[in-house]
Amino acid sequence: MKVGKEVAAAKRAGSLRAARPGKEPFHMKGTWLAVGLVAFFGITEPNELSAQGLEKAIIAHNSDSISIAPLIYGIEKGFYRKEGIDLEFRLLRTDLAVAAIVSSKEVDYMYSAGTAFRVAVRGLPLKIVAYGFKDILFYLMAQPTVQSGKDLKGKKVAVSSPSDTGGLAAKASIKAFGLDPEKDVVYIAIGAASVRMAAMEARSVEAAIMPLPWNIRLKQKGFKEMIFAGDILRQPLTGIVTSGEKLDKNPQQVKKVLRGFLRSLKAFKQERKEATELIGRKFFLEPQVADEVYGTVLQTLSEDGTVSQQVLQEFLEQVKKETGVKKQIALGDIVDYRLLREAVKEIETQGPRD
Fold first, then answer.
1. At what angle do helices 69-77 and 272-283 cross, to 10 degrees?
2. In what order do the strands lie in the sheet with 186-189?
3. Mean pLDDT, 10 residues at a time, over the chain (354 residues)?
4. Lesser CB count within 10 Å: N end or C end of the chain?
5. pTM for the whole structure
6. What is the spatial order of strands in the sheet that 85-91 belongs to?
7. 35: nearest Cα among 19, 56, 13
């Protein structure tokens, strides 16, 4: 995969921007919405030191969903900078992020832990070092004219990718309606939630799998919420992912990111007013709706950056079945909490970062 060409094209187009405190919202507007660009721009050398002595690092995710809220909250609050990391967030299609981490080194981390788990099972050298959410937060949304799930037979369903967590949530939802998820619908892979919403508004698809809070935005526009995929597909969602090479060559940077992430999770849970304000501001939600979304997030947010061994082992067996992988795979080859545990101890020693 020629990730470098995608990056160069995005640089020329200026399609995506980093998440910066007080800047523009995560959903994209104008031409980008229309054409659904998926690359990113403005990448600097990951280990370059900034003028402030901060180590630069890039973290990417494929969708501007609510799952990024704790991560972005920490960036805006400066938790990563206080650990010595200038962490920049990028929207980037999952397959490009995987290739960039494993091969081109244009991305340091990705936040799509579910997808990372699946490609790691297939043998790519990715490591999940922390989790943000214990369950998925996806909803299958449909056009107002759709009366029941069976009406989707032969219709188009928008996903980010048919094989990522959202795509699998869509397939599980279709199956729950008594349809064959592989034969009865057509999946249209068109990237971020903002692009999927645009496709729904243009009536170019009959349904779309949407993360919280995009389901709420679509309901407000008159679209129909068909099913909450989290009731039928139980698996961990987002988390911090990097390469095995990064773990071996720069464990100190990984620990800095993990310390920032742990502080972000804790603050996001404790600072309801500020966290709710961020949700409302970034996703253009009324205060009451933003508070409702925040409450839903708290129910599935990881307490300490981990998901239990039992849940992960069950997930591993499920993914092996999905992918047809027969060989024995140790869970530790995919999920490595070693540096997370060290980060926890260091935070306990350091105390709060003012």
1. 110
2. 186-189, 156-159, 207-211, 138-142, 224-228
3. 41 36 37 33 42 87 89 97 96 89 87 91 95 92 96 96 87 96 95 92 97 91 95 87 94 97 97 96 91 92 92 90 89 96 92 65
4. C
5. 0.75
6. 85-91, 55-61, 109-110, 239-243, 126-131
7. 13
